[in-house]
Design goal:
- Among the domains are: 56 residues; 185 residues.
- It is built from ten helices and 31 strands.
- A five-stranded mixed sheet has the order 7-28-27-26-25, covered by helices on one side. It has a four-stranded antiparallel sheet with strand order 8-31-30-29, with no helix packed on it. The chain has a four-stranded antiparallel sheet with strand order 9-10-11-12.
- β26 and β27 form a beta hairpin.
- The chain starts with a helix and ends with a strand.
- 30% of the residues are buried.
- This is Tripartite motif-containing protein 2.
């Protein structure tokens, strides 16, 4: 019965038997029954007093515990300030003025603290860990099922058009594999991280139980600190939402123009070669799936996907969270929190926008609706914001003093990572940069309001090329831009009342004929592959377009 009430402790002599029930008062070692018999019969140790381990008090063990710093000294006190056991020499050397307590009191208080942490582990961390793992595993299974359905659909489409497109199946599979791999990897990483933390926490808890049973007080502060850190990591309310594609490929009538849109990223050659098309881009008819009308008179200019159910539609002074389903305004956020355009929404749902009173500050609205300053820049005005796939922030800014603009990149902690303002020749890149986005390959696309052009930089901020008026559309007036899942850029053109679909190397693939629908697009936001929200600021309506 006595052994069942205690945690299993290994023998200090043989190191293998976990049924150590004896303790040598002379050697200060725990041992199993077999080793204790050998120990008592040995000439060197036959006079030693061997008793049952359960009869050894905590004070007996603390009485001769050696200091880890001063090996010749015994630990006699517990430093409350440093959470550490010390000897008398430690007190005079490095712990002057600290608060101290008796060692036997430490053994009485620390196990209680461990019990509290163990309770949190069992009641909070374990249920949360199991629930999140179940969600991630379910999503992983959905993606794998979607992959099988996608490849089946790809095969069927390829067979139907094999006569005119000999390499269609191979290219589509390549595309789906890239998408599926990019979606599965974050989930696998999240699962591996959680499982590793949980396993290590279980191991540390077992070690703590053994330490308490063996009365090895010297290890208690370190183990408790380790348990606290892992409990905190597993208990934190981190965002586990991973946005996945519901369908990689949909049935539609494939034309040469649409194939070019899909497979533009697999082309080989220099940017100059790619922009020399064999066929000119054409205006492509599109269909409207839904229209949301916004009441009021305040001007609106941009639209952002807030979450699965809501859009953020905003102007200079007003920003509305609007239901995608009903079109009803859920909340006015700009006036409520003192914000202005530009504004973006992070993957965890937090809102980031320009400060309403200080145009050179970026404000973050936390989940508890607390307003906090995220960036305080030494610029005149912030004109554009974009959140990258790595949760970095791209910021377009304007300096009115020297009539120049810049694009700045900050990491998710607000540390400066990149400054883009001139070409390698020293020539200024921007006059008045506004809308900015990042493409799948890391390129940065920036609308210049002053020059009616778009400047394209690589991921390191080096100039690639400029997109301007084309031979077909002369009056190019870009307002905003975004990228889709194929790595193409969509640009709203107010001058021609259309939307340009451009591949990553600046080749105009086609123009979406929004003018025939009476839509003059300003803000753009991709909802899903082939689906695009287009805001018409003049008519105060936002339309969901099917552009494939």
């Amino acid at each position: 019965m006595e052994q069942q009430q205690q945690c299993a402790v290994k023998c200090d002599l043989c190191g293998t038997n976990e049924n150590a029930t004896k303790f040598c008062m002379h050697c200060r070692e725990t041992m199993c029954g077999h080793c204790s018999e050998i120990h008592s019969k040995s000439i060197a140790s036959q006079a030693h007093e061997i008793i049952r381990r359960s009869l050894v008090s905590s004070y007996d063990i603390l009485d001769d515990m050696k200091c880890s710093v001063h090996q010749s000294k015994l630990c006699e006190m517990y430093c409350v300030t440093c959470d550490k056991i010390v000897c008398t020499k430690c007190v005079t050397d490095n712990h002057r003025g600290h608060e101290f307590d008796q060692l036997d009191k430490l053994f009485k208080t620390k196990p209680k603290e461990f019990e509290t942490l163990l309770k949190d582990f069992n009641q909070i961390v374990t249920p949360k860990y199991l629930r999140e793992c179940e969600i991630l595993e379910k999503r992983l299974l959905e993606i794998e099922n979607n992959q099988a359905a996608t490849e089946t659909e790809i095969h069927d489409q390829a067979e139907a058009f094999k006569a005119c497109v000999g390499t269609l199946e191979e290219k589509l599979k390549r595309m789906s594999q890239v998408v599926i791999k990019s979606e599965k990897q974050p989930i696998k990483n999240a699962l591996a991280s959680k499982r590793e933390n949980y396993t290590q926490l279980q191991k540390t808890i077992k070690e703590m139980q053994v330490v308490l049973e063996k009365h090895h007080i010297a290890n208690i502060p370190l183990l408790l600190n380790n348990i606290r850190q892992r409990l905190s990591a597993l208990s934190s309310e981190e965002d586990i939402a991973i946005h996945t594609e519901t369908a990689v490929f949909e049935k539609y009538e494939i034309s040469l123009e649409r194939l070019e849109t899909f497979f533009g990223q697999f082309s080989v050659g220099t940017p100059g070669d790619l922009r020399k098309r064999t066929l000119p881009p054409v205006k492509t008819p599109i269909s409207v799936k839904k229209v949301i009308e916004i009441r009021g008179t305040s001007p609106l200019s941009s639209v952002t996907i807030a979450n699965e159910k809501e859009l953020l539609i905003s102007g200079d002074k007003y920003g509305f969270q609007i239901s995608k389903e009903s079109g009803n305004v859920q909340m006015e956020v700009f006036q409520k929190f003192g914000l202005r355009e530009p504004a973006v929404v992070l993957s965890n749902g937090l809102l980031v926008a320009r400060d309403g009173k200080c145009p050179n500050k970026i404000v973050k609205i936390l989940s508890n609706q607390v307003r906090t300053v995220f960036l305080d820049l030494t610029v005149d005005i912030i004109t554009g914001l974009h959140i990258t796939r790595k949760s970095e922030i791209l910021v377009s800014v304007v300096q009115s003093e020297d009539c120049s603009g810049e694009v700045l990149k900050y990491d998710k902690l607000g540390e400066a990572a990149l400054r883009i303002y001139q070409k390698e020749s020293g020539e200024a890149l921007f006059a008045y940069p506004t809308s900015v986005t990042e493409n799948l390959n890391g390129d940065i696309w920036v609308v210049d309001k002053e020059t009616d052009s778009i400047e394209i930089l690589d991921r390191f901020g080096l100039y690639r090329f400029t997109y301007k008026n084309s031979d077909i559309l002369k009056n190019f007036k870009p307002h905003s831009l975004t990228s889709d899942s194929n790595g193409n850029i969509l640009i709203s053109d107010r001058g021609n009342q259309t939307i340009h679909v451009i591949d990553r190397d600046g080749r105009a693939l086609r123009y979406l004929d929004t003018a025939s629908l009476g839509i003059s697009p300003t803000g753009l936001a991709v909802e899903a592959p082939g689906l695009l929200w287009a805001l018409d600021s003049d008519k105060r309506c936002c339309s969901l377009l099917n552009y494939f």
